[in-house]
TrEMBL record:
Cofactor(s) annotated in UniProt: [2Fe-2S] cluster
Protein name: Iron-sulfur cluster assembly protein
A Gene Ontology cellular-component term: mitochondrial matrix
Function: Scaffold protein for the de novo synthesis of iron-sulfur (Fe-S) clusters within mitochondria, which is required for maturation of both mitochondrial and cytoplasmic [2Fe-2S] and [4Fe-4S] proteins.
Ranges where the NIF system FeS cluster assembly NifU N-terminal domain occurs: 30-154
The species this protein was found in: Leucosporidium creatinivorum
Entry GO MF terms: 2 iron, 2 sulfur cluster binding; iron ion binding
Key words, A-Z: 2Fe-2S, Iron, Iron-sulfur, Metal-binding, Mitochondrion, Transit peptide
One record GO biological process: iron-sulfur cluster assembly
Compartments (UniProt record): Mitochondrion matrix
Length: 182
């Protein structure tokens, strides 16, 4: 009976079993070593200042299982992701997917990061079909963070995101408008 309860707990709270050396073999049959590695040693956990114009935030969730993922990117003036943080409330696969995504997108352009598909994450972490929604959360989170960043940049009038230059010629009284999109 104890083994059955422990196995049931693993699916709900992986840390209960993963942290226990006695039950570790059971955990390794349910989670791939890559998932366990990212779960036990998550990379880039934390938060960035959401009010920073260079930071984009994505918050997504899976109602079916209750997983919630926040992923934030900081983009340099060169358009490269210079920092990335995450906070995830969920199973080991959701945490591992978040952690892996942060490692993957660091140093990428927004276009490169936005092109990452959940199937790539699932393949890299060896996620079983029942956990594919965790990799989908990571894909949705990076896309939401990129969209938030772009939206902020448009509203702040940054020339990096796109703007309209309006000029009034004092001599002729003519107004010219030039749309610039980067």
């Amino acid at each position: 009976m104890f083994a059955l309860r422990s196995a049931a707990r693993l699916s709900l709270r992986p840390s209960t079993v993963v942290a226990s050396p006695v039950l570790r073999p059971m955990a390794s049959r349910m989670y791939h070593e890559k998932v366990i590695d990212h779960y036990e040693r998550p990379r880039n956990v934390g938060s960035l200042d959401k009010n920073d114009q260079h930071v984009g935030s994505g918050l997504v969730g899976a109602p079916a299982c209750g997983d919630v993922m926040k992923l934030q990117i900081k983009v340099g003036e060169d358009g490269i992701i210079s920092d990335v943080k995450f906070k995830t409330f969920g199973c080991g696969s959701a945490i591992a997917s978040s952690s892996y995504m942060t490692e993957r997108v660091l140093g990428m352009t927004l276009e490169q990061a936005g092109a990452i598909k959940n199937t790539e994450i699932a393949k890299e972490l060896c996620l079983p079909p029942v956990k594919l929604h965790c990799s989908m959360l990571a894909e949705d989170a990076i896309k939401a963070a990129i969209n938030d960043y772009k939206k902020k940049r448009l509203t702040t009038g940054s020339k990096k995101a796109g703007h309209i230059d309006v000029a009034l010629n004092d001599k002729t009284g003519e107004t010219t408008a030039t749309a610039v999109v980067n």
